[in-house]
Design a protein that fits this description.
The chain has four domains: 3-217, Serine Threonine Protein Phosphatase 5, Tetratricopeptide repeat (Alpha Horseshoe); 239-318, Serine Threonine Protein Phosphatase 5, Tetratricopeptide repeat (Alpha Horseshoe), CATH 1.25.40.10; 320-379, Serine Threonine Protein Phosphatase 5, Tetratricopeptide repeat (Alpha Horseshoe); 384-652, Rossmann fold (3-Layer(aba) Sandwich). The protein contains 33 helices and five strands. The chain has helices at 3-15, 19-32, 37-50, 53-66, 71-83, 87-100, 105-117, 121-134, 139-151, 155-168, 173-185, 189-202, 207-219, 223-236, 241-254, 257-270, 275-288, 291-304, 309-316, 326-336, 342-359, 362-379, 384-397, 400-405, 427-435, 448-455, 475-490, 510-516, 529-538, 551-572, 581-586, 588-599, 643-649; strands at 416-421, 440-442, 498-501, 521-526, 576-580.
C-alpha cells in the first residue's frame, strides 16, 4: 500500500465531506503501521467529523505521544474537548498550541471562547484581540469580540469591531443588527436605525429586526416610527405575545390608553402568564383610576410569583391600614429575609412608613422614612452643590438685557402650558384641573425639554453646557428649540388647542422658554416649604431626584429654587402665574377660574370634577378624588423630627 497516496485520498474525502471513507483509509494504514502520525491525525479529524469524539481524542493523543510539537494537533484536540464539554482540557490544548506557535490565531480565538464560557470575560477579550492581531481579517474573532464587548457594556469598542468586520465580509443582517445594538447603547439612534434598516433590507421577513428597529425609535423618542416598525413585526409574527406587549408600551407612551389596554390584553390572550404584561396592564389600570382591574392584574402576578415584593407593595396602595394589619408583619418579614435587594428594601421601608403614618404612629413612620431615604441616597452619586451652582448661573445668564434683546424670536405657538415648581407642590392637581377642559390635552411630565437642552452645545465651545451656551444661540436656534418641543408635545395629543407639560423641574428653563416659546403659558405651583419638602421626603420617586433623599439637602435645594423663581419674577414680570396649593384647596372654584382665565380658556364645569376624568395620571392617585385638605399641614405631625430641614430652609421655614 502506498501510504502517501492513500493519505492524499483520505484528505480528499475529508475535503468533500466524506469522513467515513477518509477514516476507513486511515484504519487501513494503521493496521500495518499503528503509530503512523499522519494517519492518526487524519483519523482523529475524520472521527471528529463523524461524531465519535472519544475515538477522535484517543487518536490525536496517541499522535502527540510521537510528536508533541505539532500545534495543529493540539488545536484540533482542543476543538474536540470543547465538543466533549471538557473546557479545562480544551484550554490546556489551545494553550499548548500557542506555546508551539505563538501566532496561532485560531487557537487564541477558541481559547477566548473557552474563557468566555468559563466566565473569565476580560481574559476572553484579550485572547480575541490576540487572534485579530495575528490575523487581521479573522471575521469569526471579530464577531466574537464584538458580541462579547456588547455583553460587557463596551458599545464603542463593539461598534469598532462590527464596522471592521463589515469591511471584510459581505453585508450581513446579523452583524448589522449587532452594530445597531451597539449604536443604540451609545445613544447614536440615527446611525442605529440606519444599520437596522440595512439589516431589514437584507432580511425583510425577520420580525426581530423590525422589533429592534422599533426599540431604537422608542428610545429616540420617535414613537410614531416605533409604532410603524412594531406593526411590521406583528404582521410577520402575529402569534408572538411579546410584540403586542411592546406595541402596548408604545401606545402607553403615546397616551393612547384604550389602544394600549387592547394590545396588552391581546398579548395576555396569547400568553396568559405573561408577568411583565400583567404588571404593565395593572399599572395602566391604576393610572386610569380603574382600581379593581388593577388589583386583579396584580393578584394574578402574585399567583405566579408570590414573592414579588414590588407587586405585593403595589397592592398595598389600595389598602387602608388597621392596627393589627397583617401586611405590616408581611413587610417586616420580607426585611428579615436574606437576598432582598437594596432597592426592594428601600421600597419596603417607604411602604412601612406610609402604613405607620396611616395608623398615626409618626415616630415609627419617620424611622422607616429615614431608612428608605438613606438607602436611596447611598445609591446615588449626587452633588447638591452642582445643582445650586447651576441655578445661580442660570439667574446670572438670563439677565434683563438678554431677555429684552430677544423678544421677536422663537416659535410663536401658543399651544404649550408649562406647569412648574417643586415636586409635590400641586403640579399634578393643577394639570388635572386644566387637562379636564375639552380644549386641553394633558401631556404629563415630558422629559423632552430637559433632554433637548442637555444635548445642545455652543457652536463656539462644544464643552459649554446649559445655561452657558444660551448667549450663542441665534434666532433660528431659538425657533428650532421651541418648535422641536411643540412637535414632541403634539405626539399622541391629537387635535387640541393647548397641551400641558407638567415637568416640575422645567422651572430651571423659564428664561429659555420665554425666548423659544414666547406665547407659552407658565403656571408656577407653590406650597408651604416645609410641606413641600417633607412630602418629597415621604415619596419614593421613580426618578433619581438626587436632592430629595436627605432633609438638609432638600432644604438647601428649596432655597436655591426659591431664589431662582424670585429672579424669574423680576425679569419675566407677569408672564408667570403663581398658584398656591393651600388657596386652591380652600377655594377651588375661584382658583380654577383664575387658571382658565390665564390660559385663555372659557369656563367649563368639568374642571371642577377633574377627579372623574379617565385620562392617564402617572404621578398622583389623589387626583382621582375630590379636593381635600388633609395634606395641607400633615407635616406638623413630624415637626419635632424635622430640624435638619427647617435649619436648611432658614428664613423660609415657618416660625412655629
Amino acid at each position: 500500500m502506498k501510504v502517501a497516496g492513500a493519505l492524499k485520498d483520505a484528505m480528499t474525502f475529508l475535503q468533500k465531506g466524506q469522513p467515513d471513507q477518509a477514516l476507513a483509509i486511515c484504519w487501513d494504514i494503521l493496521k500495518d503501521q499503528p503509530d503512523y502520525v499522519e494517519a492518526l491525525n487524519l483519523g482523529g479529524i475524520a472521527s471528529f467529523q463523524t461524531g465519535d469524539l472519544g475515538q477522535a481524542s484517543a487518536m490525536l493523543r496517541k499522535s502527540l505521544e510521537h510528536n508533541s510539537r505539532d500545534a495543529e494537533v493540539f488545536y484540533n484536540l482542543g476543538l474536540i474537548d470543547v465538543s466533549r464539554e471538557k473546557l479545562n482540557e480544551a484550554a490546556d490544548a489551545f494553550e499548548a498550541a500557542i506555546r508551539i506557535d505563538p501566532h496561532h490565531a485560531g487557537a487564541y480565538n477558541n481559547l477566548a471562547n473557552v474563557r468566555r464560557e468559563q466566565g473569565q470575560l476580560d481574559e476572553a477579550v484579550d485572547f480575541y484581540r490576540q487572534a485579530i492581531k495575528y490575523r487581521p481579517d479573522y471575521h469569526l474573532a471579530l464577531e466574537n469580540l464584538g458580541n462579547l464587548l456588547l455583553k460587557l457594556n463596551q458599545p464603542e469598542e463593539a461598534r469598532d469591531a462590527f464596522v471592521r468586520l463589515l469591511e471584510i465580509i459581505p453585508p450581513n443582517a446579523a452583524i448589522l443588527s449587532n452594530l445597531g445594538e451597539a449604536l443604540k447603547s451609545m445613544e447614536q439612534f440615527e446611525d442605529a436605525a440606519t444599520a437596522l434598516g440595512e439589516a431589514i433590507s437584507l432580511s425583510p421577513d425577520t420580525p426581530d429586526l423590525h422589533l429592534e428597529l422599533s426599540m431604537v425609535f422608542m428610545e429616540a423618542g420617535q414613537l410614531i416610527n416605533a409604532q410603524a416598525a412594531c406593526k411590521s413585526a406583528i404582521r410577520q409574527a402575529p402569534d408572538r405575545a411579546g410584540l403586542y406587549f411592546h406595541h402596548g408600551n408604545i401606545l402607553y407612551r403615546l397616551g393612547y390608553a384604550e389602544e394600549s389596554e387592547a394590545a396588552f390584553l391581546h398579548a395576555l390572550k396569547i400568553k396568559p402568564d405573561f408577568i411583565e404584561c400583567l404588571k404593565n396592564l395593572g399599572n395602566l389600570y391604576k393610572e386610569l383610576g380603574s382600581f379593581d382591574e388593577a388589583k386583579a392584574c396584580f393578584r394574578q402576578v402574585l399567583d405566579i410569583e408570590p414573592d414579588d415584593i414590588r407587586i405585593f407593595l403595589s397592592l398595598l396602595d389600595f389598602k387602608t391600614m388597621t392596627g393589627d394589619d397583617h401586611n405590616i408583619r408581611a413587610m417586616q418579614g420580607f426585611l428579615e429575609k436574606t437576598g432582598v435587594s437594596q432597592t426592594d428594601r428601600q421600597s419596603l421601608y417607604f411602604n412601612l412608613a406610609k402604613s405607620f403614618d396611616g395608623l398615626g404612629d409618626y415616630d415609627a413612620a419617620f424611622e422607616n422614612f429615614q431608612k428608605g431615604n438613606a438607602i436611596k441616597r447611598g445609591l446615588l452619586d449626587y452633588d447638591i452643590g452642582a445643582d445650586i451652582a447651576k441655578m445661580k448661573q442660570t439667574a446670572k445668564v438670563f439677565s434683563p438685557d438678554l431677555l429684552s434683546q430677544n423678544t421677536d424670536g422663537g416659535d410663536q405657538s401658543d399651544i404649550p402650558i408649562f406647569i412648574v415648581g417643586m415636586p409635590r407642590s400641586g403640579t399634578t392637581l393643577v394639570e388635572q384641573i386644566i387637562a379636564t377642559h375639552p380644549f386641553v390635552h394633558g401631556g404629563g411630565e415630558s422629559e423632552h425639554l430637559n433632554e433637548l437642552v442637555s444635548k445642545i452645545r455652543s457652536n463656539k465651545d462644544k464643552d459649554r453646557q446649559y445655561p452657558d451656551w444660551v448667549n450663542d444661540v441665534d434666532a433660528k436656534g431659538l425657533y428650532d428649540i421651541g418648535n422641536a418641543h411643540v412637535e414632541a408635545l403634539r405626539l399622541g395629543a391629537g387635535e387640541t388647542q393647548r397641551i400641558t407639560d407638567k415637568m416640575p423641574g422645567n422651572f430651571l428653563y423659564l428664561g429659555l422658554i420665554r425666548l423659544a416659546l414666547p406665547n407659552a403659558k407658565i403656571i408656577h405651583c407653590i406650597r408651604d416649604p416645609m410641606a413641600t419638602c417633607f412630602s418629597c421626603y415621604q415619596k419614593e420617586f421613580a426618578s433619581p431626584l438626587g436632592f430629595s433623599w436627605d432633609l438638609a439637602e432638600l432644604g438647601e435645594y428649596y432655597q436655591a429654587y426659591y431664589e431662582l423663581m424670585a429672579h424669574w419674577r423680576d425679569v419675566l414680570d407677569d408672564w408667570i402665574l403663581d398658584v398656591r396649593y393651600e388657596q386652591l384647596v380652600a377655594n377651588q372654584k375661584d382658583e380654577t377660574q383664575r387658571l382658565l382665565d390665564f390660559c385663555g380658556l372659557p369656563w367649563d364645569d368639568a374642571c371642577l370634577s377633574f377627579y372623574k376624568s379617565k385620562r392617564l395620571v402617572k404621578t398622583s392617585p389623589q387626583v382621582r378624588q375630590p379636593i381635600y385638605n388633609n395634606a395641607v399641614a400633615h407635616w406638623r405631625n413630624y415637626h419635632k423630627l424635622l430640624s435638619p430641614l427647617s435649619d436648611a430652609l432658614g428664613s423660609l421655614a415657618p416660625k412655629s
